[in-house]
Amino acid sequence: MKKMLLHSLVVCLLLGGCTVTGRLQRRGLGARANYAPKEQKQEPKKESAPQYIEYKHRDSLQPVYFLPTTTLENGERVMSFELDEVVVVAKSRTVAERMGKVCIDFVIELPRQLQGNCQSVAVTPMLHKTDSLVPLQQISIRGGLFCRVQDRNYWQFDQYVRVFKPDAAAEQRAFERFVKHPYPEGVRLDSIVEGREKISYYYTQEVPTKGEGKTMHVTLAGAVVGLDGSRYDMPPLDTLEYNISSMLTFADTTRRYLTRVIEKYAVVKNRNYLAFEVGKSDIIDTLETNAVQLARIESLMDGLINQREFYVDSIVLTASASPEGALALNERLARGRALSLKRRLGARFGRQVDTLLCVRWVAEDWEELTRLIAADGTIAEREAILGLLRTIGNPDRREAELRRRFPKQYRDIRERLYPLLRAVNFKYDLRRVGMVKDTIHTTVPDTLYARGVKLLNEREYNEALRILRPYEDRNTAVAMLSLGHDEQAYEVLCRLEEEATVEYLKAVACARMGRVEEGKAAFRRACELQPNFEYRGNLDPEIRELITTQ
């Protein structure tokens, strides 16, 4: 057996000239790649037997494939491997983007001249990116003798390892000595052929579109290796060009500006705390923090009256007192303090304020006290105190019961919370000058939206959708369609005003969802609104499939 193998190898080398691949160098042969458009697919023939036989060597994890042969009437033997695709030569092909990917497909043709019993042919499709070449999975075609020599080399290596049990470094050196031609790894196809007929292989691959432009280019890189160590690198072939049909052509790049809702009417509230002598209503600037409080009141009033954006329709001044003492006394004090402050402001700002200012008073602000107690978690028996305040209607009796039933808490409340009830509240009712509509558009660009559109055009679809989803506009639908969220996109599009691009996108969504009649109607409407969409639709694989469906 060993002698027969060596004899065959010698014969093969002699027939090949100086080297096994020498004749290929002289002829400059190479593999070819042709488009295989989906619209020209043939239905695969149903056969009882598979088109190839899978074989896995006992010492290899990589399967190989034997192509069966048939004998013609003239006695010629040919491989019976059949493809489902019809080879079509074209200048370019349009592919639809789905989920950030496109499916490219083509047929690799390997002429018989590149094949040989003692040769191995490897062809690698190369995807051309902007700044790099990305190799796709390789296909490998090995001659019968070439494969048998490989098997013999691996057997010799295994015997060496079994007998001598070398360490890792020695084992690696032995592998390089025995195995001159390792088995191919990570390949799309690994076939062993005995014949010399042309081989065609249908190749399909999903490719991410992130970072790509409007087109993709594919070339083939290939090499033939002989058992004698010779090598022949195939010359480059024509580039296959794939035009990416993506939703990005329908993105709206118009600058968007912020929209603000501005109310015609506005209200400004201001709360201040003035100190008064016990039982008196006169305002004394030097008492406690009165000077600071009065300055705040006058500053705000001056700013609101003299600004140009608003008219001041009215000013309501409400003075309140704390509950200690009789209700009648507290009401007199609250009224007197409110009127005292009005007189001071009238003298400061003149008749205009005196006319606008409306005076009110609250003798005992139990509502505010209840709110303060409810918000204070430090008060013991807080719920019982709140229950008392809600159930006793008479203010004087309410204050007396609080003091009697909760003496400790009452002292604390009187010390900390009662001063907060001695307040002066201002409420300014304003009306915007010249205001007609409540919503206005600003000249400030919406930078967040602009970032979403930028991410969309960079095919960062998930990130773009996170930003664009709340806007629910055409760009939102484009991002959804690019991610395959077709139903959601259709719902968004149905809420938009009718226009050509919106109707076209509806047609795409319907085509994907299988809603043929709705899709056709949307496409017809898009063409009515913008006639050039008819030409665009014939170039779009999804629309073309839609309109040709019976």
Q: Classify the helix fraction into a percent range.
A: 25-40%
Shape: elongated
How many beta strands in the DSSP annotation?
21
Continuous helix count: 19
Number of domains: 3
Q: What structural category arises from helix and sheet content?
A: alpha+beta
Radius of gyration: 44 Å
Beta fraction: 15-25%
What is the typical, i.e. mean, pLDDT?
81
* Intertermini distance: 64 Å
Please provide a written account of the structure.
- This protein is 40% helix and 25% strand.
- The protein is an alpha+beta fold and 550 residues long.
- The strands form five sheets. Strands 2, 3, 6, 8, 9, 10, 11, 13, 14 and 15 form a ten-stranded mixed β-sheet that branches. It has a four-stranded mixed β-sheet with strand order 17-20-18-19. A three-stranded antiparallel β-sheet has the order 1-7-12, with no helix packed on it.
- Helix 10 crosses helix 11 (407-416).
- The chain is elongated and about 120 Å long.
